[in-house]
Amino acid sequence: MDFRFALALALPIAIGLAAIGSGFGLGRAVGSAMEAIGRQPEAAGKIQTAMIIGAAFIEALTIYALVAFFLLFGKIA
User: What is the structure's pLDDT at 75?
Assistant: First the structure.
């Protein structure tokens, strides 16, 4: 197994794991925020702001994985 074959095998698996983790994280964050808003409707604005910031950070990790994918994809060919 050479370097290129291992990279070609690992890159799609890594980006898939990053996407799955991001999806679970977003689902959990939004679900928890909705429960919190349901319990305290008067704090909906603060909870929503915190949820959006958290969702942005979660998405940023996925975007970093995608950028790493494209950077390393050039080494395969």
Answer: 85
Q: State the 10-residue block means of pLDDT for the chain, 77 residues long.
A: 88 94 95 96 95 95 92 85
Spell 22-37 as b/e; 16+ CB within 10 A means b: beebbeebeeebeebb
What backbone phi and psi angles, to 5 degrees, belong to 76? -75, -45
Question: What b-and-e string marks burial along 39-68, b requiring 16 or more CB atoms within 10 Å of the CB?
Answer: eeeeeeeebeeebeebbeebeeebeebeee
**Cβ distance 11 to 72 under 8 Å?**
yes
